Amino acid sequence: MISAILVFNNHGKPRLVRFYQRLAEEVQQQIIRETFHLVLKRDDHICNFLECGSLFGGPDYKLIYRHYATLYFVFCVDSSESELGILDLIQVFVETLDKCFENVCELDLIFHMDKVHYILQEVVIGGMVLETNMNEIVAQAEAQSKLEKTEGGLSAAPSRAVSAVKNINLPEIPRNINIGDINIKVPNLSQFV
């Protein structure tokens, strides 16, 4: 099972963080720092797998990572996952991001965080690999983008909600509400419409 997915730049700034087990915020920050220092001090010609038992509290956890340009993609997995399978999954994730953003870069991860998280959820959900077919992932991401455009996107949501409330046809609002011994007088709100 995948315990965490971390993407950070060459300076250790996290650009994507997803933990699939509940950990305190301080512990997560410590894991991110230690993972970055472990991965950074390794040479590019060394194997992309390393043991990280002390980070996640068990001897059977491994870090599997790839370094692309200015970004490190790091997956922390338990012993039930195949190292080569996870390396391939990282490759699929990066190539999918590349297709969706046309030459993905660090700024895409910063400014399109919602889309990056959506793509990640198409690949991995709950620590389990869901989809590895790049074309299917890209098709789902494009369908989501189309849906957001037809609905006006997230930025238009508040104005749509206000207009929906204004257009509700309510019958005459009662002026007095009696609940047992409690009598509530409702003010006239027509002046605010």
TrEMBL record:
Domain AP complex mu/sigma subunit: start-end pairs: 1-145
Mode of membrane association: Peripheral membrane protein
Biological function: Part of the AP-3 complex, an adaptor-related complex which is not clathrin-associated. The complex is associated with the Golgi region as well as more peripheral structures. It facilitates the budding of vesicles from the Golgi membrane and may be directly involved in trafficking to lysosomes. In concert with the BLOC-1 complex, AP-3 is required to target cargos into vesicles assembled at cell bodies for delivery into neurites and nerve terminals.
InterPro entries: AP_complex_ssu, AP_mu_sigma_su, APS3, Clathrin_sm-chain_CS, Longin-like_dom_sf
Descriptive protein name: Adaptor related protein complex 3 subunit sigma 2
GO biological-process terms attached to the record: Golgi to vacuole transport; intracellular protein transport
Keyword set, alphabetical order: Cytoplasmic vesicle, Golgi apparatus, Membrane, Protein transport, Transport
Native species: Apteryx owenii (Little spotted kiwi)
Lineage of the species this protein comes from: Eukaryota, Metazoa, Chordata, Craniata, Vertebrata
Keyword Protein transport: yes
Compartment(s) of residence: Cytoplasmic vesicle membrane; Golgi apparatus
Main localization category: membrane
Cellular component GO terms, alphabetical: AP-3 adaptor complex; cytoplasmic vesicle membrane; Golgi apparatus
